[in-house]
Amino acid sequence: MTEHVPVLLEEATDLLTGGGGKVFLDCTLGGGGHAKRILEKVKDSYIIGIDWDEEAIEIAEKNLKDFEGRFSIYKANFVNLDLVLKEEGVDRVDGMLFDLGMSMYQLRSNRGFSFQRDAPLDMRMDREQKLTAYDVVNRYPERELERILREYGEERLSRRIARAIVKRREKKPIETTGELVEIIVSVYPERLRYGRIHPATRVFQAIRIEVNKELENLEVALKKTPELLNHGGRLVVISFHSLEDRIVKRFFKERQNLFRILTKKPITPSEDEIRMNLASRSAKLRAGERI
């Protein structure tokens, strides 16, 4: 399986560790790429890692094996980061990292995250949760489907796509990503089908966000961070679409009495990084230091 390449690796880890300190919380551990770099950079540092994807945790454990005794990993949703720290016996940490991107091994899995692979409609980060993409596509009312595609996908053709989905599922359930892609493409005018962004991109984003409650979880988790950061501790967030970035930007703006903003403008990948890792092209990094 292709190794996942951490986005903005040096920028994120430099900012995170720049306030000093030794104990860091990686709220989106993934394959452990950022965590590994922090452990390399800061001698005697300790990482508490959170991820709700069991496959990610297995990969991270292998990638961090050389740092045994310097990390602990919890299978959890980062919305419960306060409970994780309580279980670890830690009151506050010196830095927190959120990397909100999809991992390469998730996109290449058989879990329906990518419109480029024909797979069952699943899209759950945590396979123990009940709601799946199949449920959203086949059971949500047309109006609710349209709202999700419009709000979470910023999809201009949300109404037409929702209508086409409902019409198709009346004949038989829509079971795979391939079937869903076919419906979406059929709605798009031919002149718009071959642009820079695939017609299914925004729809898949919207459904994934709904299945995993990504925006709600992010808002709740961010609100918990000030009380769990030491003074001088750093909060670093890497987002990948405008909805996430808006939440992060607003969070820092509304809490300037609690955070010194370290990124007046979001940091974005260099041309070299984008050339080496196309998935990084939409990344935006914002950071603040606890006052």
In short:
With 291 residues, this protein is an alpha/beta fold. It contains 13 helices and seven strands.
Structural commentary:
By secondary structure, the chain is α/β, with parallel strands linked by helices. The chain folds into two domains: 9-105 and 214-290, Vaccinia Virus protein VP39 (Rossmann fold), CATH 3.40.50; 109-212, Orthogonal Bundle (DNA polymerase, domain 1). The chain has 13 helices and seven strands. It has helices at 9-17, 33-41, 54-63, 81-88, 104-107, 133-139, 142-153, 158-169, 177-187, 201-212, 214-228, 242-254, 271-276; strands at 23-26, 46-51, 71-75, 93-99, 229-239, 259-261, 284-290. Strands 3-2-1-4-5-7-6 form a seven-stranded mixed β-sheet, sandwiched between helices. Helix 3 links the parallel strand 2 (46-51) and strand 3. Helix 8 packs across helix 9 (177-187). The longest helix is centred in the C-terminal third of the chain and has 15 residues, at 214-228. The protein is elongated, with a radius of gyration of 20 Å. 45% of the residues are buried. The model has no long low-confidence stretch (mean pLDDT 95).
- Any idea what the radius of gyration is? 20 Å
End-to-end separation: 42 Å
What spatial order of strands do you see in the largest sheet? 3-2-1-4-5-7-6
**SS-based class:** alpha/beta
Topology at a glance:
Blueprint: H1 9-17, E1 23-26, H2 33-41, E2 46-51, H3 54-63, E3 71-75, H4 81-88, E4 93-99, H5 104-107, H6 133-139, H7 142-153, H8 158-169, H9 177-187, H10 201-212, H11 214-228, E5 229-239, H12 242-254, E6 259-261, H13 271-276, E7 284-290
Parallel strand pairs: 1-2, 1-4, 2-3, 4-5
Antiparallel strand pairs: 5-7, 6-7
Helix pairs in contact: 1-2, 7-8, 7-10, 8-9, 11-12
